[in-house]
Write a structure and sequence with these properties.
By secondary structure, this protein is α/β, with parallel strands linked by helices. It contains ten helices and 20 strands. The protein folds into three domains: 66 residues, Archaeosine Trna-guanine Transglycosylase, Chain: A, domain 4; 108 residues, RNA methyltransferase domain (HRMD) like (Transcription Regulator spoIIAA, 2-Layer Sandwich); 188 residues, Rossmann fold (3-Layer(aba) Sandwich), CATH 3.40.50.
Length: 391
């Protein structure tokens, strides 16, 4: 890889890099020797000019995303090596098996590739760049995916128009694929549309939490809010739920939920799927459901929005606690990275006080093993969930 510049840190600002945290913030930089453009590879040095590592440059708050922490310049094989390690980790964790054909292959900082997401959907890799450097290197990354997965992959789709500033085109970097595309997750089938769907097409991070819903839903009357493509709904029915009602503000999501119910052999009439605002839907409900799933989109995508977001989480949880039957179960989540576990927990406590119900925490949930959290990058712990028993 061609190194375009040297980024020199201020004295005393090298500690986080020495602890293998991949982000170099603009305020820590003393000087930039060279004239790098967004996406270039740069060398990062401490104030004594000792090399700390190499990474991608991009003007902004996070100016460098370190991908190595040695004084050895990276070579063209860096992506193949890191993707190979990530794949092996998924094999060891038994994420990839006969009953599951979709998983996250690369989870950004958790796999030492800050700014890169790769999800696998039954032979198709969907790549999403969150940095200019990953965008610049996208073709090399696609080729590395093919080298690592070999016959396990036939297409690589690039989708970063919502994660990068400026205009980026959605495109197949390798191969092509026919949509809709069916994947399996713990034996349940789902249509995935990575071209038009949210994120990379499916929320893989809820896989084990969906499985837990299935294990607890037998005989229950279930409400799945913010259902997207009906993942939790299918699992609940597979687990023996009496019926599931699925709600999402998006008509497209509801259409796909219905298709996924039919794909798995469930009656889309008995199991109502409705395009509606969740708060509006809950207004006239009382004692109809004994199992409610609250999996909203990120209410806060940056710190400035956090206060308002907590009001939203508080209101949503209080409303669900109000309407659920006694001895009911609530699965409640936050996927906002800027909302930490304690803040989310405290907000749910506030909801319980507002609702005036007796509530116990049965379990605390997180993201699965193919969304690893680097011990040096705690910001990667973004998915938080609670299983609540409401009396």
């Amino acid at each position: 890889m061609k190194i375009q510049a040297q980024v020199v840190l201020k004295k005393g600002r090298e500690a986080s890099a020495k602890r293998f945290h991949p982000w170099i913030f603009s305020g820590a930089i003393h000087s930039v020797d060279g004239n790098p453009t967004d996406g270039d590879w740069v060398e990062v040095r401490d104030a004594a000019k000792k090399t700390l590592g190499f990474g991608h440059y991009q003007k902004g708050t996070i100016t460098v995303r370190l991908l190595t922490f040695t004084n050895q310049e990276p070579t063209q094989t860096i992506y193949k090596e890191k993707i190979g390690k990530a794949f092996y980790q998924r094999v060891i964790a038994n994420v990839i098996n006969e009953s599951t054909t979709c998983y996250r292959l690369v989870h950004g900082e958790g796999d030492g590739l800050s700014g890169l997401i790769i999800d696998i959907y039954n032979g198709v890799a969907v790549m999403q760049a969150h940095s200019a450097g990953m965008h610049t290197d996208r073709q090399l990354i696609a080729e590395s995916i093919r080298e690592v997965l070999a016959d396990g992959i036939h297409s690589v789709y690039y989708k970063s128009q919502t994660t990068l500033p400026g205009k980026t085109e959605k495109e197949y970097l390798l191969g092509m694929s026919v949509l809709p595309h069916v994947v399996m997750e713990h034996g349940n089938k789902f249509y995935v549309d990575w071209e038009e769907g949210q994120k990379t097409g499916f929320f893989i991070d809820q896989r084990e939490n969906r499985k837990l819903v299935g294990e607890m839903a037998k005989g229950k009357k279930v409400l799945n809010t913010f259902c997207y493509t009906g993942g939790f709904s299918v699992y609940a029915l597979a687990g023996g739920a009496e019926y599931v009602h699925s709600v999402d503000a998006s008509e497209k999501a509801i259409d796909l939920t219905k298709k996924n119910l039919e794909l798995n052999g469930y009656d889309p009439i008995k199991n109502l799927s409705e395009a509606a605002d969740t708060f509006d839907f809950l207004k006239d409900k009382k004692d109809e459901y004994d199992f409610i799933i609250l999996d909203p989109p990120a209410f806060a995508k940056h710190k400035d929005a956090r206060h308002q977001a907590m009001k939203g989480y508080q209101r949503l949880n209080a409303e669900a606690m109000r309407v659920i039957k006694p001895q009911g179960i609530i699965f409640t989540f936050s996927c906002s990275q800027v909302v930490d576990r304690q803040l989310f927990y405290d907000t749910v406590v506030s909801s319980a006080i507002t609702a005036g119900r007796e509530i116990k925490v049965l379990d605390q949930l997180s993201q699965p093993s193919d969304h690893p959290i680097s011990i040096y990058h705690p910001e990667g712990d973004y998915l938080k969930g609670l299983v609540l028993y409401v009396n």
